[in-house]
């Protein structure tokens, strides 16, 4: 989860009319639902569905129609009474809200199985997340390339960040090394960290961190599976 705040201050530019909500406090609960809107709207566009009501959208997503309207009203609202939502316009606006119209330079620290899997996931680049380099301590990996992206020695991290504008550091190391890597990234001026190490990292207040614990979802699945017949 994002550790530094429960609400995020953002500026939203709305469509061609440039209607803006400046410094609007949006709860993280709403922010965390936006990627799901983005995903389902893309599926609708792929099926050539260009218009949808909040009720129809609620049946797809598992949210109530009221919840959908409340969520979208945080950003000024997008629906028209009697018409519903223009799927393409709503998809584009949510892309803007999520910052997916901006390009971000990223690096991966830890080039093992998980780091390589993330490096090979091409969808990230499609949404503007450009992988600039990977780093590791394993001499067998240093010098290799993944999709033409080089793996460098971890000792070169500071210099690389100094020479390239890196926005996001992705940590895929064992947990005993993760905090030290986070310290190096923040010291070098990286403003956001996506952490896959199984530890909640501590960073300065001006650095955004998303701690992703893959086992959490599996444990929830285990709970539901073990209690499904009760």
UniProtKB/TrEMBL annotation:
SMART domains: CoA_binding. GO terms for molecular function: DNA binding; DNA-binding transcription factor activity. It comes from the Bacteria. GO terms for biological process: negative regulation of DNA-templated transcription; response to redox state. NAD(+) binds at residues 110-115. One of its GO terms (cellular component) is cytoplasm. Keywords: Cytoplasm, DNA-binding, NAD, Repressor, Transcription, Transcription regulation. SUPFAM superfamilies: NAD(P)-binding Rossmann-fold domains, Winged helix' DNA-binding domain. Gene3D superfamilies: NAD(P)-binding Rossmann-like Domain, Winged helix-like DNA-binding domain superfamily/Winged helix DNA-binding domain. Modulates transcription in response to changes in cellular NADH/NAD(+) redox state. This is Redox-sensing transcriptional repressor Rex.
